[in-house]
Amino acid sequence: MRTVLLSLLFCSLLNGVTRANSCPLILDDGVGRQVMLAQPAQRVIALSRGGLEIVLALGGNVAGHPSLRGIALPEAVRSLPMVGDVVTPNLEVLMQTAPDLIIAPAQAHGDVAERLKVLQTPLYLSRVKSVTHALRTIRDIGALLNADPQAATLCASLERQLAEARMTIPLGSQPRTVLLFGTSQSFFVIAPHTFAGDLLRLAGGENVATAIMRRQTGAPGTEMEYLPLSLEDLLQVDPEVIAVVSHGDPELVTAALNNELGIHPAWRTLSAVQQGRVRVLPAELLSSDAGPEFPKALRLLIEVVHGR
Q: Total structural domains in the chain?
């Protein structure tokens, strides 16, 4: 964002205006890559739900929409071409839509930038591991769309909603909580240095994944975002709340959990199980592909963690 401001300042000195469309927009994206546009983006492609929601919230013009399973598209974009997603982008359709900016989450697939090089289109990669990163992404996209005021207004509204949600957290309450990610087949522990982990911190839960990481790796600062689920580790930290983040059908995931409880009776000794505080949460709310709806995720986590 600092690069953008310097670029605009230079343009204003040359042209005597705050923003000149003839001057390039330059900023570093979420992974430190430089993104440069000759002028504000007019035809945008977002390869994920979060990016699409941000562009629409800022009044940007989208040239197509990503493939989204199980998620309803906004009516305004349903008739536009479907361009695939960040894992399997449809390069042929992308070329036909002729975007002047593509937005994609970097962590969804490591080589997305390489596969999109053939398009020779400016690419903004987001990497959201915290609420601060999510707000920065909105401001960055706002700059690339020439929608800085809209981005500032949206971020201010989101920060206000977060603050209001946190005011409902009971004083002195910090239940031991673990976030699990999985399907009906397998589960992993979500590390603290993730977007979901940051939301849990803001929700006032004590994230026992920190202790689990120390047990598994000897160092809580590892870059691993998902840790193998070990019943022995869970028994050691004894969470009071277990939240399962899943893309799967909530009923199937709940059934898988109940099956796990039946196979390993030791699960029933956990405080969270004894107190009936095991919840399955929709993955799209806690995904690192964050759109402008993450205050809703924080409110849900506060409800789950504190039983409100």
A: 2
198 and 249 belong to one structural domain: yes
Assign residue 165 a region: left if phi > 0, alpha if psi is -120 to 50, beta otherwise? alpha
Summarize pLDDT for 131-185 with one digit per residue, the tens.
999 999 999 999 999 999 999 999 999 999 999 999 999 998 899 999 999 765 6
> What is the phi/psi pair of residue 158, to 5°?
-65, -40
- Give residue for tokens 């305004």: 76
**Distance from C-alpha of 287 to C-alpha of 209, rounded to nearest angstrom:** 17
Q: How far apart are CA 197 and CA 179, in angstroms?
A: 8
Residues forming beta bridges with residue 228, ordered by sequence position = 188
Count CB-CB contacts under 10 A for residue 9: 11
User: Among the three residues 144, 164, 184, which one is the final residue of a domain in this structure?
Assistant: 164
- Domain hosting residue 27, numbered range: 2-164
- The answer to whether the Cα torsion of 83, 89, 136, 34 is positive or negative is negative
Q: Is the confidence at residue 243, as pLDDT, over 60?
A: yes
Q: Which value, in Å, is the radius of gyration of the alpha carbons in the chain?
A: 21
Q: Mean pLDDT in the chain? A: 86
